[in-house]
Amino acid sequence: MFCSGCGGQIDAALNYCNRCGNRVSKGDTSSVADNLSQAITYVGVFGLMGFIFVTVILIRKEVPYDAFVPIAIAYLSALVAICWMLIRHSFQLTKLKIEASRPTANVPDPNYLSPRTTAQLGEPTQQPASVIEHTTRTLDKIPVDR
């Protein structure tokens, strides 16, 4: 389930979003993916209406065919690119929503290191250095050449 305020994934048992604090209504099933689907529809419809409007204006002003074609191609390619990005994002959010609704097994978090008990620790491979060794080495007489 996703928050309608911030779009973050939330647990279905919660009443408020952990990220933004927005109240979660149980009957509200609209998600960010649904909103993106509506946005794709609006962008497509208004984009095509705008293309028709621009085409009519260019025809009335008797713009030469050589100038009209690049303008039309640029407009339609921008419209298709915007719709494609919205569709791709909508599919990604839908995929995340499906993955979130699946029950998860007890898979350990890869970022979590399990604690080790002393029984699991291996034997030390070398003896630790003694404090006495290091202090006596610094107090040894050093010959000085004069």
In short:
The chain is mostly helical. It has helices at residues 32-60, 65-101, 131-138.
Question: Care to describe what's here?
Answer:
With 146 residues, this protein is mainly α. Helices cover 51% and strands 0% of the residues. The protein is built from 3 helices and no strands. It has helices at residues 32-60, 65-101, 131-138. Helix 1 packs antiparallel against helix 2. The radius of gyration is 33 Å and the shape is elongated.
Strand percentage, roughly? Answer: under 5%
Poorly predicted tracts of residues: none
Mean pLDDT: 76
Largest sheet: none
Note the main attributes of this structure.
3 helices; 146 residues; mainly alpha; single chain
What order do the helices and strands come in, and which of them pair?
Elements: H1 32-60, H2 65-101, H3 131-138
